[in-house]
Amino acid sequence: MYFLVKTIIRRYNRALENVVDVRLAFSRLNSAAPAHCVAEWESAIEAAEIDRQSQPSAMDIMHSQIKSGQSLKEIAAEIMKEDGLSISQVADNGEYTEWLLQGFNLEDDQ
């Protein structure tokens, strides 16, 4: 029991240390994402929160959509390839890719 309490305290302290970085990354993600996407994400999360008592699987939308078996390097290469294909649609100086990769790194750290 002692080790369990010690582990929980250690994880809590680590979460406190990372909260500033996570909030900053979240803020950057929200400001960089198109407004309609943010609104769609928020409504999906609100619906999942409402349904979670009767249907816990509703919270599955919070899980990563990254295909298992992909390395961060493969994901980064795929994103950069997509950025290259979408240059004619949206001007991107690399900032979108950068904030997305930071989000992946934060998820890996958690």
Could you characterize what this model shows?
The radius of gyration is 17 Å and the shape is globular. The protein contains 4 helices and no strands. It has 2 domains: 2-32 and 66-109, no CATH class; 35-63. It is mostly helical. The model has no long low-confidence stretch (mean pLDDT 79).
Observed structural traits:
single chain; 110 residues; mainly alpha; 70% helix
* Rg on CA atoms, Å: 17 Å
Instruction: Tell me about the largest β-sheet.
Output: none
Q: Please state the structural category.
A: mainly alpha
**Can you count the helices?**
4
N to C succession of SSEs: HHHH
State the helicity in percent bands: over 70%
> Spans with pLDDT under 50 lasting ≥5 residues?
none
Average residue pLDDT: 79
Total beta strand runs: 0
What share of the residues does DSSP label as strand, in percent?
Answer: under 5%
Shape: globular
Measure the end-to-end span.
Answer: 24 Å
Number of domains: 2
Would you spell out the secondary-structure blueprint of this structure?
Layout: H1 2-32, H2 35-51, H3 72-85, H4 95-109
Helix pairs in contact: 1-4, 3-4
